[in-house]
Amino acid sequence: GWRPPPSTDLTVNTVDTHLRETLPKISRLLGRGLSDIMIYWNFNLPLLLLLQVFGMLVWILIGGTDYFPLSALCWVMFVAILFWILTVSLCFHCSATVLYLVTAAVDALSVNQATRGRHNYNCWAASAFFAFLTTLCYAGSSYLSYRGWKISREEQ
Known about the structure:
GO terms for molecular function: structural constituent of myelin sheath. This is CKLF-like MARVEL transmembrane domain containing 8b. The chain crosses the membrane at residues 39-62, 74-104, 124-146. The chain is mainly alpha-helical. It has one domain. It has four helices and no strands. Helix 1 (6-63) runs antiparallel to helix 2. It is elongated, with a radius of gyration of 26 Å.
């Protein structure tokens, strides 16, 4: 059969060897990077939206009631409004997860201070529910932020 000239054979073999070594590395890097970026944006973006909605519901539901006599609900309002306004980062989400967990527990325990069936009771119970949902969203977003940070560190 036909064979390329010897000088071309060396070049073809060198390029072929280089491509065989390089392409798997590039595809692994791109495949991992693209899939992780897609995972981050596909899951974290909706979580960020849910954080805004649930967090807003927590402070709106309490803010529409007579919560001032209960200092625990003042704490709930402080955490809910503070983290609703602050910007996004890994440390922010981790601290928000912890504080929102405490806030959700305080909010749930404060529901007993209201009379069942009254406006305050219903709003406070709903607020406690949304505080727990917000906590779960912050925890999920913390995990995804950590994962994104870890991947970016490995690529450096």
